[in-house]
Amino acid sequence: MVEGISGSPAPAGLVERVKAILLKPKEEWPKIAADPATAGDVVTRYAIPLIAIGPVASFIGGQVFGYSAWFVSYRPGFVAGLSSAVGTFVMSLLVLLAVTFIAEFLAPKFGGEANRRQALKWVAYGATASWVGAIFGLIPSLAGLGMLAGLYSLYLFYVGASPMMKVPEDKALGFTAATVGAAILAMIVASAIVASIVGAFAGGAALVGGALGSNDTSGTVTIPGVGTIDADKMEQTAQRMEQMANGEIQPVKPAQLSPLLPASIGSYARVATSSTAMGMGSQAEATYEAGDRRFDLRVVDMAAIGGLAGIASAMGVEHSQEDADGYERVFKDGDHMVTEKWSKSGSSGTYGVVVADRFMIEAEGQAASIDELKAAVATVDQDDLEDMAG
Predict the structure, then answer these.
(1) What whole-number distance in Å separates Cα of residue 266 and Cα of residue 381?
(2) In the chain, domain spans
């Protein structure tokens, strides 16, 4: 059993520590290293509440909104959804413990120390961004954005490797890459068992460049084979996330979003409307029809978690996939992140734009072409959203 450290500061509360590790990781990791909290405290008072975010959010999102994949909608039954949530929670907890053992085993091979309690803290606190980002599961159509938080967790692991596991700074990247690689494999196994997507540690170790260890928080950081990170953008995002956490930024009321959805779009007439307020965000949606074609246009305020969208913009995240039937892309267009999918066989697709690193405007469904969905998104006044963002 590892003894506590005499004279160490009292453990920080859950919310305070989450904010600190996300917003000021270089300052917080040494404090976590000196924290005398036991392994049991870390698991029960920190890890378990945060691990529960993903399963609970996905369960609620599935029951309220349902899921869709390539435009086939599915709403799980209550028992099936609850079983999946419980299974995901249990598997995520097992993965936490498994990766802890792996980190403890690998540390000496990279010049560090084998300390199970410190390894557990490193894995638990490093995964904070991934666990918190899982709140996107409340709106299944936005769940993919939770993967962006996994990218930030890679950075948290990298920064914490030296203070937590005593790995020399010049070996911290290799140690992080090896451990995260093991985490990815563990998550694949867990996902196969649970048959659900839990998406922690998405991406790859290549996204963590050696330059990320720099104390310079301005300008850009170049990562070979990936591109550049706008450090100023990251700093702005961190500040906005802190404001949201402090309640200084409140979600826009659905009544303010609904008027942004037009009565008609070209030959399409609006046939239904709905709105949702969820405390940490809000949404207004309308359904449009023209003959046998039908699509939904929605405006989502991601207020409390929208700052995570800024991470994608800062890191220049892009994705492209294409086959004979269609394509899927994620890219940056000016200051906006854009998602675009199209299926030729189903004449259906999705087109979405993130505005002010906070609002998502998205059109999804059947149309004559992707251009009709783009035109639908264009009907929503982005200037109005910019004004709402303040």
Answers:
(1) 16
(2) 14-215, 254-389
Q: What pTM does this model have?
A: 0.48
* Per-residue tokens: 229: 């990170």
Of 9, 7, 28, 11, nearest in space to 19 by CA: 28
Higher pLDDT, 171 or 240: 171
Region 254-389: CATH code: 3.40.1000.70
Q: How far apart are CA 66 and CA 164, in angstroms?
A: 41
pLDDT confidence of residue 227: 43
